[in-house]
Amino acid sequence: MEQAKDRPEVMTEGETPAGPISKGAKKVERIAQQSIELFDDIKEWIDLKIKFTWLEVEAKIDAKKKDVLVGALLGVLGVLGIVFALITGALGLGAWLGHPAWGFLMVTGLLFLTAGLVYGAHFSRGKKKKKSLAAASEQKQLEAQDGQKKLPPGSPAP
Q: Containing domain of residue 156, as a range?
């Protein structure tokens, strides 16, 4: 639309955005010229819409990058804080028990105990789910056998 900057804001009769039309021009020529101008305007609008959408996507990506960086920084600082708290606790327990090694041994034991409890809770739930799925499949087979027809073992119930 660079041409629009050179044109006056108000057009007179017999003038198009591309310029004046001669009085002798046929209607078909005017329609053709205006159609070309309309096509150019639509093409330019689509190009601008694509650029705008691209800029919006870039802005969203930049915002997500900043969020990830802040999250990573907070994660690193949090891990460092936990490590220092564990060391402080181990030294405090060691001072209370008479030797720093005892404090570190106690903290290490608590960490392994916690890891074992989390591991056991996670995998025992998985086994219960598998058992409950197997029990549900057997129940469906029994219901199908009692009902209409027998299913071969291991086949899914209807």
A: 100-158
